[in-house]
Design goal:
single chain, mainly beta, six-stranded antiparallel sheet, 1 helix
Amino acid sequence: MIKAHGSFVADEVPKDLLYRKPVNGSYVSGTGVWKLVDDGVAQRIFLEFRAISEGQQESVPFGTVLNVSRTLSSINLNYFENDADLGRKVEFERK
C-alpha cells in the first residue's frame, strides 16, 4: 500500500522485486518510503525499503523501482523479472 504522505507497506511481494533474482513461490514484506520520478518520458515509483521481514535484512535500506502504466480506468505498477526483453512482467493493481 502506497500512502499519500510518502511511506509504503509491502505485504507479500515477490522477493525478486528486491533482489532481482527469480525465487519461485517466495515472498517478502516490508516498509519504507517512496517518491515519484518523472523523466518526461515515463513515470516510475522509487521504493526505498527500510525494513524487511526476511532475507537479506542487513541490506536495508534497499531501493528498487516500479514502472507506472495507465489505462482509461486504472493505474498499475509493474516491473520485469530479470531482462525486460524476456517479457515476464509482474503487475500490481489497485484493489
